[in-house]
């Protein structure tokens, strides 16, 4: 059954769109707070790293992807993800292929040590406490600003989830 045909079974398409929009609004508030505070707080942690045994080089050859700087340590590896081969004609047929499990990233010992040093720097410099405080404030402000929508949507989501569960349970097993 096409997805559009099942909305009547367990709720309105508008409810799903409203729920998604509200989720985006709440996560957007957290993203804005993170962006607003990240530069200043990151500089403090980097200063601590430099005072330790980890240089912070934005032009180094071994840039850590999240931070965009080289901490003077070799980075780990992530094995290539195997891709199943798909043969035959593709026409307008949808093919379902098995999921490919995520490949685990394996950091080097030095990279693990630098990550631990970075965390310790965030504690020692007070950045961790400030970050948690800023993000908690942003979360509380976003929830307060959207309290009416959250309150109104809660029972609708609960009812819709219950109806969806019943619809799934009533489907014949294959």
Q: Compute the average pLDDT.
A: 85
The parts where pLDDT drops under 50 for at least 5 residues are none
Q: Could you give the order of the helices and strands?
A: HHHHH
Sheet having the most strands: none
- Shape descriptor reads flat
Secondary structure category:
mainly alpha
Helix content: 55-70%
What does this molecule look like?
This protein has 174 residues and is mainly α. It has helices at residues 3-10, 13-51, 109-124, 127-145, 147-169. The protein has one domain (9-75, 108-169).
Topology record:
Elements: H1 3-10, H2 13-51, H3 109-124, H4 127-145, H5 147-169
Helix pairs in contact: 2-3, 2-4
Supply the key terms.
0% strand; single chain; 174 residues; 60% helix; mainly alpha
Brief account:
With 174 residues, the protein is mainly α.
């Amino acid at each position: 059954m096409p997805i559009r045909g099942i909305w009547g079974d367990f709720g309105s398409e508008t409810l799903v769109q409203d729920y998604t929009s509200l989720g985006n609004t709440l996560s957007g508030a957290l993203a804005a707070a993170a962006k607003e505070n990240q530069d200043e707080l990151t500089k403090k942690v980097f200063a601590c790293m430099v005072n330790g045994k980890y240089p912070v080089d934005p032009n180094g050859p071994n840039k850590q992807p999240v931070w965009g700087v080289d901490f003077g340590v070799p980075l780990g590896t992530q094995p290539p993800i195997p891709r199943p081969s798909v043969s035959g004609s593709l026409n307008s047929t949808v093919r379902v292929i098995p999921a490919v499990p995520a490949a685990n990233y394996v950091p080097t010992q030095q990279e693990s040590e630098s990550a631990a040093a970075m965390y310790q720097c965030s504690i020692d410099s007070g950045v961790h406490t400030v970050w948690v405080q800023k993000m908690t404030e942003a979360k509380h402000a976003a929830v307060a600003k959207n309290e009416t929508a959250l309150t109104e949507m809660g029972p609708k989501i609960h009812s819709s989830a219950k109806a969806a569960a019943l619809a799934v349970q009533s489907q014949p097993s294959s």
